[in-house]
Amino acid sequence: MTGGLRVRDVAADPELACPISPVVDIVFSRWTTPILWTLHAHGRQRFVELERRITRITPKVLTQRLRQLERDGLVVRTYHPEVPPRVEYEISALGLSLRPLFAHLAEWADEHLPQVEEAREDYDGRA
What we know:
With 127 residues, the chain is mostly helical.
């Protein structure tokens, strides 16, 4: 038994054998990282501000991702009942707890992305 899972269950489902798989699914889905990065870098944002900063995302997808991030507890949505109504999004304490992970990934990218690009060029050149 491993953390409530039987060894047989883990062997039958390789995703269960990888403890970070659920984290990768949450944090690294297509638009999650740019949204969290933007909220972290620029603080509380209205929808239109996020839309301006993340230029390639469609309004529909931004809405879907923000709802999912709110559901996952990584983003806080604040509704201000004004005329016209105002909604703001900010990264939550839980979302901020990902800061060390993002810092490590940024370091890794600085150090290793040139090697990745070189490997891609080598691979593509063999074709």
